[in-house]
């Protein structure tokens, strides 16, 4: 599929996207395979640059992005390079690039291959370093504990990056088996901002995947001691507004009103009125039908902050003018997506994989029509469920 | 591209405007060339953290309504940030003319009130605590102190609990009046906006009266070589930091390009040095290298996780002490890559916007730099070698307790 952008790009983007159901361990395997493929292609492109004097490869990038969407994991392979015409470079032809992309994004991993074995070891170390390094951030550790509690009775996955614990016991045989069973025959959809693809890749698929699972969010306030200066609080607020269902766009507007910016209720009350935190925000997760609220505060104010947030959410209300402002902000956010090619890819992949899809224009039109009274009614249904507080000196 | 690049001045306020037809999102920022390093001068001393404090409260209206909320209500994203050499206030959105009018007006007419400021002190202390939870922050400030021997540039941007508590509204006005002048400010705009519309707005809203700018204390004595070690809990992989300050502070665009090429020769993805260091795991994928420059200083920073940070630092010093051989093939590759990487910035309004601000804060013009870069055919490697060899090295190691 050619994703037409309205702007003039210097860059040519080739992307392919697939959705796959994975277990938590398989997600770690997928991440490890991504490290392997990126590294193998860096080496390959470097060697081609020199041997064949292919200047176009000098500033190209090949990346794999992995996103855990709950039931599914989305994989996006992206290859990006500068359009030759901007550097008057005659050493390559844009028309050959699609097959080159296919070649580098389909590289197998073979246990018998010496190159694969060597790379496997260094990639496993790199991946392990990255996981350990991320864990140094207290904010991240707090989020991990929160997600673990939130999903403790479910097999859904929300962390993209896999697990350091699983990684320790993975060997090259397991990775090869994973590649052969799960990756090798995946069906991809292709997206580009330039007409490079041969005809057979231009077909649109209709995978008709459905998002079915609901989770039972525990109702409790947990405190996890840790030696940090601030106390990191994450809260799950159930809204029952699910992707693809009738009222799901209300979720975005309600999120803007609750904690989406500097004019939101949480920011105005918790930070501006009570000076309890530097940062507070909410995010809407339409897969789970929740708002995630996160803030950092002094541990002595932890109980007060959580109690105030519960009060705000219990009496969640707003004026018609505030509702219209929240709608306008949301419409503007969707309009600005037109500026980014990658946003197009993500949107276009949703269209092919799920049996529900709204284009940017459709979303904008529907948001403009959202009704104030209905929003107030939905706001009344919103409930605080789980709060997980992590760390903070002078703790209880 | 040039036909969409405008530079001008209205009532003493300079502006840079890049018109990018077709893009929806527009960006504007008021930049004040006043940051934490300017808090102490030859004839004045302000409390540490005051530049950052002003950033938090500059947009408050006389009725004490928060300017950031007003801007958000107008449908734009508003934000601000303070560094050691500048502070900036930005708005981004689809319709930014009226928010920009508000921003410029608020920028030149602040309201600092005691009650409001006292309340904000608690918020800033929360921010300070949060920054101190980041393992690298404490080491960074220790390195800065060692580097600058307690000169103002070493100030933590947020300040300390004591200095934040000592800030008053009178002091904020005094500081504001010294530095928030038209002469010391710049408006940066990127997006599909008509030039005439901007000029009209600025004519209406930029005050015609001009205050004189305080003299900044920009001249620092040269620091001494130092190695700082710091331990923190929750460090899973040790890290090193290397900061090299150059004795020659005023690099030309060509010299900067040569330095970048030399560094690329050493650490680019094709280099043998880089491969050797990674294969011994003296550095890993987290390796990050950046160069910086101010009005009177310039330098290079390197950091990475490492199995042996001490050995990594010694190895790097050894590399910089020896002149790298010139590889003509690599030189050509570098020039293509570098030109491509600068061209790419123009595909993204946000990147372009922040790059212009970053360049301006370092006394540079992105477009002049690009013009010079596109002309370069040959690179001089002797100059960067001498620069690195004679630089002053401040090094830091961060490890677990």
Unreliable sequence segments of chain B:
none
Helix and strand pattern of chain B:
EEEEEHHEEHHHHHEHEEHHEEHHHHHE
Strand content of chain B: 15-25%
Biggest sheet statistics of chain A = 5 strands, mixed
Instruction: Tell me the distance between the termini of chain B.
Output: 54 Å
State the helicity of chain B in percent bands.
Answer: 40-55%
Tally of helical segments of chain B: 15
Order of helices and strands of chain A: EHEEHHHHHEEEHHEEHHHHHE
Strand percentage of chain A lies at 15-25%
Structural class of chain B: alpha+beta
Major β-sheet strand ordering of chain B: 1-2-8-3-7-6
Whole-number average pLDDT of chain B?
88
How many extended strands of chain A? 9
What topology, given as strand order, has the largest sheet of chain A?
Answer: 5-9-6-8-7
Number of strands of chain B: 13
Based on Cα principal axes, name the global outline of chain A.
globular
Quaternary state reads heterodimer
By secondary-structure content and strand pairing, the structural class of chain A works out as alpha+beta
What's the rounded overall pLDDT mean of chain A?
86
Give a summary of the structure in a few sentences.
The complex is a heterodimer of chains A (396) and B (401). Chain A is of the alpha+beta class and 396 residues long. Chain A contains 13 helices and 9 strands.
Architecture overview:
The complex is a heterodimer of chains A (396) and B (401). By secondary structure, chain A is an alpha+beta fold. Chain A has helices at residues 24-51, 97-105, 114-134, 138-150, 164-168, 172-183, 248-259, 265-273, 302-314, 320-336, 341-353, 360-368, 372-380; strands at 11-20, 61-68, 73-82, 189-192, 220-224, 231-238, 277-285, 290-297, 383-390. Chain A contains 13 helices and 9 strands. In chain A, the strands form 2 sheets. Chain A has a 5-stranded mixed sheet with strand order 5-9-6-8-7, sandwiched between helices. In chain A, strands 2-3-1-4 form a 4-stranded antiparallel sheet, with helices on both faces. In chain A, strand 7 (277-285) and strand 8 (290-297) form a beta hairpin. In chain A, helix 1 (24-51) crosses helix 6 and helix 7 (248-259) crosses helix 10 (320-336). The longest helix of chain A is centred in the N-terminal third of the chain and has 28 residues, at 24-51. Chain A is globular and about 65 Å long. Chain B has 401 residues and is an alpha+beta fold. Helix content of chain B is 43%, strand content 20%. Chain B has helices at 50-57, 67-73, 97-108, 114-132, 135-148, 161-166, 169-179, 195-205, 253-267, 272-279, 309-321, 328-344, 349-361, 366-375, 382-389; strands spanning 5-10, 13-19, 26-32, 40-41, 44-45, 77-82, 87-93, 185-191, 226-232, 239-245, 288-293, 298-305, 392-400. In chain B, the strands form 3 sheets. Chain B has a 6-stranded mixed sheet with strand order 1-2-8-3-7-6, with helices on both faces. In chain B, helix 3 packs parallel to helix 8. The chains are: A alpha+beta (396), B alpha+beta (401).
